[in-house]
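Hi all, posting the design record for the shared folder.

TITLE: backbone redesign
STEP: 1 of 1
STRUCTURE INPUT:
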């Protein structure tokens, strides 16, 4: 299951949440903790994008979903740093792998019954999630 997304980008107070999240990320120095944080943010943004799309705010949903992907990309980068430091990354790799599959599943569900322009964006973002899965599998197998 996806975490509760909290305040969504369509809320006027969302900027406060964004500032808080950026500050939290800034103060996390350990790569494993950054990976966990980035993965949580990616999952929250995914959940938020789904809600926004259900509310008919497709452009904001696509933007939020794209930011989810950015967090996921950061999580993969951080786990690679942790590996280089000799940390045990196996549990987090499994989490990343499961999450990437969930992202693909949710995005695929979101794409159902969408107009062509939104569908194209969602298919691109679904492929991006698939690329994340492949990257995690490469890390896991090496």
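Okay, here is what came back for every position:
SEQUENCE:
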């Amino acid at each position: 299951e996806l975490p509760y997304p909290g305040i969504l980008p369509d809320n006027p107070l969302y900027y406060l949440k964004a500032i808080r999240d950026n500050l939290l990320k800034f103060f996390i120095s350990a790569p494993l903790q950054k990976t966990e944080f980035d993965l949580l943010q990616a999952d929250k943004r995914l959940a938020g994008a789904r809600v926004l799309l259900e509310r008919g705010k497709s452009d904001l949903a696509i933007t939020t979903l794209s930011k989810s992907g950015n967090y996921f990309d950061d999580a993969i980068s951080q786990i690679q740093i942790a590996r280089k430091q000799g940390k045990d990354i196996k549990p987090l790799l499994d989490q990343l792998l499961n999450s990437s599959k969930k992202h693909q599943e949710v995005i695929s569900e979101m794409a159902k019954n969408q107009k062509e322009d939104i569908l194209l964006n969602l298919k691109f973002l679904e492929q991006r999630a698939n690329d994340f899965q492949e990257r995690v599998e490469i890390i896991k197998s090496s």
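COMMENT: The chain is about 80% helix and 0% strand.
Let me know if anyone wants the other runs.
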